[in-house]
Structures are given as C-alpha cells and as structure tokens.
Design a protein that fits this description.
This protein has 5 helices and 9 strands. The chain is α/β, with parallel strands linked by helices.
Length: about 170
Amino acid sequence: FESTTLTVLNLLGEWIPDNPGRILDLGCGPGRMTLPLAHRFPNAEVIGCDISEKMLALARGREAPSNVRWVKGDGLLIPIADTSVSFAFEVVVFQHNEPHVCAALTAEVARTLEPGGVFMFQTIENVDFDDWGHLAPEVPAAWATSAGLEVIGTTRGVIYSDWLWTIAQKP
C-alpha cells in the first residue's frame, strides 16, 4: 500500500489549496491517507469519515496528531457543518456504489464545501457493472455539476489505467 498511498497523496497535493482549514477524507478506512495529510497540513483539521465502525476503530488505534478527527457517517449525511471544508476527497468509495448513490454522495460533499472548496473523487472509467450497467466517463462530471460544483480538472491513469479522477470546485 505504501507506494500507492504516496502516489495518491502526491496527486491530492496538486489540488489541495494553500493553507486549507479543513480536509475531509470520505471513506477513510484505517486512515492511510488521513494521517499523512494531517502531518502535511498541521494547521488544518483533517477529518476521516467512514461508515464502518471497525475501520474507524483501526484508525483510532493509530497514533494521530491532534488535528485529526474521526467521525462515523455513511456519506449521505456527513456530520460536518455546511460550507466548512476546504478540500474533500474519496478513493475507492464511489466504485463500490451505484451511480445514483454517487450522485447523492457528491451532493452531500458539496454541501460541506466552502466557496472555492475542492472535491476530488475517483471512479472507474468505461466499466460495465452487472447490476447497473455502463459508467461512461462523462457521468462523474454530471454528478458534480448537478451538485452545483464546477469541474476544474480530470486525471487518468494514476494507479490504474481505468481510474478517472474528477476534480470539482464550489463556486
């Protein structure tokens, strides 16, 4: 995981604003991204949010700086105030959810973003899912625009060739 984590952290770092006030790791798991970001941005509050109490227990069991907070949430109702997050991201969360759920997750993250805040999310491009069909590359951008965000970038081929990263910003 270490080289993959470093690669993702470097990619995220390209889009995290200078001096973020609050960073949200949606689907944080055991905190593989949350903790390094907390060290990299010691003046930011870094929040790891996960649906799994087991994952949060693992995260809480790791040594963490004082700027880390762990919260339980399914992403559809994130226990964070409106317009309070500078940068939010997810990795390997959306690919496990149906498109309508991803659209709802995007809308909920958009609610938490401050003006100028950025949401970076990863999906699998051009894949056919047995249960709900084909995910075309324009679909993630539509989730963002439907949530009131402006797509400011996309990146392909980081980690896996079929991973699509969409970067969206709240006006």
